[in-house]
Amino acid sequence: MPAARSASRMSSPVRARAAARPLADLPNLGPRSAQMLAAAGITSLAQLKRVGAVAAYARVRRVAPAASLNLLYALAGALDGEHWQTVKRQRKLALVTALEDVERARARSARKAPAGKRGSDALLALRNIGPAMRRDLDLLGIRSLRQLARANADRLYLRLQQRTHARHDPCVWDTFAAAIHQARGGEALPWWHFTRERKRREAEGSFPPRFVPRVVPPAARPDARALVSTMRDRGAPAHAAPEVCERRRDRRRDR
Fold first, then answer.
1. Chain centre distance of CA 186
2. What is the Cα–Cα distance from 22 to 125, expressed in whole angstroms?
């Protein structure tokens, strides 16, 4: 027993030194990650442990919207002593779901202020709709529960890819399907509840085909000289013309 007590007494300074360890020295983290955490008000390991990986990442996203999900996996791995790729492989779904819950809770608290604005954010009250998906719905012209209840998940998924000119992960379809189900009066099911149906349709070939961004063929592209002439007529600077850029590249090669 005395030995155990002395060991516990000795471990206290060790824990204090560990808590004061710079964030940039933690596994998976570096100077850039530490800067983003500091901008979000998290400057020590003790703060990071108290806040948690998911809430810390949500704070970072408010000050650095471009922060990727890899930072979330890195934070979780830093706290648990795991490589961020291992965390991504084994705990991605749980972490992303927890992040959505945090963002949804924050959106609900923000809606409690003016009563006049509650109706416009009714979509955020849905279980699977966070700020990012809310912006996607707005881009697609869906601004009310009634509009969403009339929508079709296949059409929304295809239109979103066409509007953004990019291919989106199929789980976006799952989220649309879950939100439409709830908007029609159904149970507030998690989005992954619809993943099995989507995969079944993919196997059957009835799921919307894979979106391929349109590539303009060379024959349909404007002539460089004509484009230069048009740009000059509009008062564009000469260095903005593709012709000039090509000349500069040629000069570099000659050197």
1. 27
2. 39
- Kindly give the residue spans of alpha helices, DSSP state H, lying in 52-142: 53-63, 69-80, 84-111, 131-139
Q: What is the pLDDT of residues 55-113, one digit of tens each?
A: 899 888 888 888 888 999 999 999 989 999 999 888 888 888 888 888 887 776 665 54
Structure tokens belonging to residue 147? 């509009």
Cα gap 120→182, rounded to integer Å: 17
For residue 80, the one-letter residue type is: D
What does residue 140 show for φ and ψ, rounded to 5 degrees?
Answer: -90, 5
- Tokens read off for 80: 């648990």
Q: Which two tokens stand for residue 83?
A: 């490589």
DSSP secondary structure letter of residue 41: T
In the chain, helix, strand, coil percent, each to 5?
70, 0, 30
Integer distance in angstroms from the first to the last C-alpha of the chain? 78
Sequence-distant contacts of 227-232: CB under 8 A, at least 24 apart: none
pTM for the predicted model, two decimal places: 0.43
173-to-63, 102, 136, 194 alpha-carbon distances in Å: 28, 22, 12, 9
Whose tokens are 């059957």? That residue is 204
H or E element in which residue 193 lies: none
Q: How many helices (H) and strands (E) are present in the chain, helices listed first?
A: 13, 0
* Placement of tokens 């509007």 in the chain: 163
Handedness of CA 200, 206, 207, 212 (dihedral sign): positive
Q: What is the per-residue DSSP string for 9-40? A: HHHHHHHHHHHTS-GGGSTT--HHHHHHHHHT
